[in-house]
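Record pair follows.
FIRST:
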Amino acid sequence: MIPLLFVAFGVFLAGCAPLSRPGQGPPPDVDLTPAPVVARATPPAPAVAPPPSPVAAPVPVVPPETWLDLGAWAATNQVGRLTVLTAGNGRNPPQFSFATPRGQWVLQADSELSRWEGLEIRLGFPPQARNGALWLHRLDVEKNLLPLLAEPWTPTNGARRLIVIDPGHGGGDSGTRSALPGRLEKDYTLDWALRLRPLLEARGWQVVLTRTNDADVSLPARVAIAEAAGADVFVSLHFNAANGSGHAGVETYCLTPSGMPSNLARSYEDNAALTFPNNRFDTANLQLAVRLHRELLATAGGPDRGVRRARFMTVLRGQNRPAVLLEAGYLSNPAEAERIHQPEYRQRLAEAVARGVGAVIRED
């Protein structure tokens, strides 16, 4: 490379040498008439290749087998690493940790209880331990694990974001009764919704309430309100109750995916073969539920009763948008009933929901 530079430099000097020495005229054969100026065509600008389109991460392939060796499947798809936390014994099944780029999932054989980043999520089928490996049902991989690994869902309406907030019960349907005399669930849910509306509006959301007073609104009518509004998201607000006063904590529900048993059925038939309109949003439902559940727990500070699936909830089944139902504490528990009765606490619940909605929708 260096010799070529010297040669080029020599050529350059030769081209720039004077045609005559000082004090001499030009050689007789040199024509001093200015040469005509020839316009040179401007060379076309080089074509600039467009920037490459972002390449989405490959979606892990879920084989058709009913049960999957989670560790082997994760290694094949490069989505995480499974390790044994406790080997288990005759009384206690083994526990496993599944570490992924998005978080850690702790699972226990023979139990539907699992924890994602410390948050309880109920599985559809208890995992199975076989020869030191953990086997997970294919539907739990598709409907629980993959949504947790996926990019957050975002509305398709661009700058327009509309959410329907559903204060549970109303009118002749009082909901559950509080351990405090004369206090009803329907009044607390309405107050919660009215506190939530301006918080969401301040974040740029259009907000529609299914009721703004003590009115009867049927469950199908609540679905129809969201449909008529063209809502992007639906959130139903409730408080819980149980026989006795021992139950406490927060539960969050989304619709059970087709083929999977529900975590809660009550006295209703739980036909796993059924598919509802809202099942098109199974992934977004779980993402929204996890975010809202985490924010409510941070506010309530009570027991984590988990993100759960239910199929009987009419207000969720017909939704053509991500939809969840929140149970923000037990009115049958005297301590929780007293806390729910405080306006400051309901304001904090409203702030928690506003934060949770903003987190999963990725507000800009």
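SECOND:
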Amino acid sequence: MTDTAPDLDRLRGAAPPRNHDARTIAALTSNPGCARRGVMDAAGVDKDAVARELGFPAPFGQSQFAITRGNAFEAQVKADGCAELLTLLRDRLGLDVPEVAYDDLEVVAGNEGRELRHSRTRRLLGRALETGEGTLFDHPLLRLEIAGRPAYLEPDVIAFQLAGRLHVVEIKSFAVVDGQAEPEQVAAAARQSAVYVLALRRLVTELGHDPGRVSHEVFLVCPENFSNRPSATPLDVRPQLAVLERQLARLTRVDAILAELPADLTFEPGEALAESVRAVEARYAPECMAGCEMALFCRDEARACGETGALGRSVRDDLGGVDTIGTALGLADGSLTPSDDLAETAEQLRAAARLRAEALSGALSGALSGAA
């Protein structure tokens, strides 16, 4: 593999690299053809800071109240070596959890360096798989290959070993009321957990063990009803794992994208930032608004260029190789002559335009008849 690390460091500039989390990977895999997102994520660029510098701050994010509540709930569940979590696993789920050992992997001897933390994660999880020692591993730092580049993954989860198998424990602050939670929130938690399961399976494989020793069943811990009392629910993430692996395989390799970019390109703040961002091709669709910090900037760019993707992925896919709305309208009214590869698309556009004209003509005739 081409050594792209110097190029990625240059793109990021003086800013420290940002670790991936499950949300960033889920957003990246939902739009595997976006070179802009792929390069910025591979370089560890702070996309939120770039978007704000460009005047297009991200359209989403948690409120400070929600963040504070989530942190307080997580601290409660993890207090005293995860005592409350163990009670849940033993009493509520009926798991036979033996004597417990708890390891916090967030900091190693006062050092938060990624290589050191990842090395310790490998060592402790390897020992647990070999000997069965260790039960709870908090904040393991994992790596997952994204578009041909290893990316650090900062999961805010616990790896829980039971009977020789590792389970992911995901702590969320949304409430489970009368045994039910918001389906969208549960689906998002399942997608995030699938990322962590996959990263753990890759690590277990590197250590020479069967990836099946990482369970597809994760434990979702949420507040129960309207209190802060935690509840735990098993969650099967096999469908999300299948989608994730398929989408990761479709991502364009980062070294192939970098080879097409100017040698002096950088995303450092400054007058040239907007030009630098536009130098990397984006693949905007309205769905990006839900998960990408650059969505507002890319939407503005797509609208200014009249890109078909601004109307939605389904429209862009249906139009095939027609990249702009102007080209689509020209093919529909016959003012543009299609190339051989667009002949069928042009024929369909002309048919659609004819049907629209007939429908409008009929509606107008009916309105005039009614008025008479």
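COMMENT: The chain has three domains: 5-58+251-286, 64-246, 325-371.
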